[in-house]
Amino acid sequence: MFFRGVNPINLDAKGRMAIPARYRDTLTEHCGGHLVATIDTEERCLLLYPLAEWEEIQAKIEALPSFNPAARRIQRLLIGHATDIDMDGNGRLLLPAPLREYAGLSKKIILLGQGGKFEIWSEERWMATREEYLAEADGGAELPEELQNLSL
Amino acid sequence: MFFRGVNPINLDAKGRMAIPARYRDTLTEHCGGHLVATIDTEERCLLLYPLAEWEEIQAKIEALPSFNPAARRIQRLLIGHATDIDMDGNGRLLLPAPLREYAGLSKKIILLGQGGKFEIWSEERWMATREEYLAEADGGAELPEELQNLSL
DNA sequence: CAATTTTACCCACATTTACCCACATTTTCC
DNA sequence: GGAAAATGTGGGTAAATGTGGGTAAAATTG
Q: What SUPFAM superfamilies has UniProt attached to this entry (chains A, B) (predicted)?
């Protein structure tokens, strides 16, 4: 159950996106087409999880202490924006308006496979962010040790 | 019994809010539509619990040491403002005027799923608070250890 | 105790959403 | 390169949801 790849997709007038066919079988088998979308707190994009994966994450987040401000912040942002979405008969997802708005999604969007989850970007934003990433030099001093020794 | 998601809702002229249909079945099954609303002590928003959940919490709060000023404060604020509310036949809640006032609720409000409970915000206030949260960097120094290693 | 206001319950209409079908387009296979 | 299958796209319709308001019961006040 690993997703990968960049997929340019068009949102239709109702805010629906067609999941590329190659992911559909995996998604129906693994979670009956039940997904959960929420926001990314660092970038203006969305995260899309199979239901089971999301529930594990939500359990961890909910267990955090309620009176810790940093924990409250994460709970409000992540759980607060998490929305259940089911694939329709045509393999499409209807993205809720508040989430579309957050990520600035209009017509052209990018679905990015990221292992256990997907990311959803506006095409424009994705292009710009990718360029930034490429422009930053590798091998900066701030790399975690695990990365320093990573062999590709 | 996990609530999540952002729900933009309109209060009507009588101060009633329609609970989104997807939560209704859960609420009627789990607590017969009996809920308890109270205030959040940190932010100007309301907390909305299924009756059973609230009773557990109230028991814990009542058990706090009476001579501790911070405990007394919490008791007075939380238990003092807690109000029983039932869903009507149309799946709506009538929010009491004092609570609406506390949270500054007029017409446009936001219902935020937060796991075992909901939060109710004025739309305006929620937007502002969300922007603040987003502006704060993740990975600040004050994060609980559990959070530092959380992998989304 | 009567009069007035408030609350709760219910019904009916407007709007939105979900589901389904049909067409266009792309891909695959021969 | 052409035909057939699979995929992507658009939109119509029935059902579910949201909204407003009326009426009767209850509570409150003078």
A: AbrB/MazE/MraZ-like (SSF89447)
Rounded distance between C-alpha atoms, residue B55 and residue A107, angstroms = 47
Domain assignment of residue A117, yes or no: yes
Instruction: Kindly list the residues from chain B whose CB atom is less than 8 angstroms away from the CB atom of residue A42.
Output: 138
Could you tell me how far CA A125 lies from the centroid of its own chain? 14
The reply to whether residue B114 touches residue A80, judged by beta carbons under 8 angstroms, is yes
Q: A31 is in which domain, residue-wise?
A: 3-137
pLDDT in tens, A66-111: 888 899 999 999 999 999 999 999 999 999 999 999 999 999 999 9
- Residues within 7 Å (Cβ) of strand C: A 86, 88-90, 94; B 86, 88-90, 94
| CATH classification at residue B97 | 3.40.1550.20
Phi, psi (rounded to 5 degrees) for B27: -70, -40
- Judge: A75–B115 Cβ closer than 8 Å, yes or no: yes
Say how many domains are in chain B: 1
Q: Which residue is nearest to nucleotide C18 (CA to C1')?
A: A88
Of residues A71, B81, B50, the one with CA closest to residue B73: B81
Residue A7 lies inside a defined structural domain of this protein? yes
Contacts of A58 in chain B (CB under 8 A): 2, 4, 115
What percent of chain B has a predicted confidence (pLDDT) above 70?
A: 94
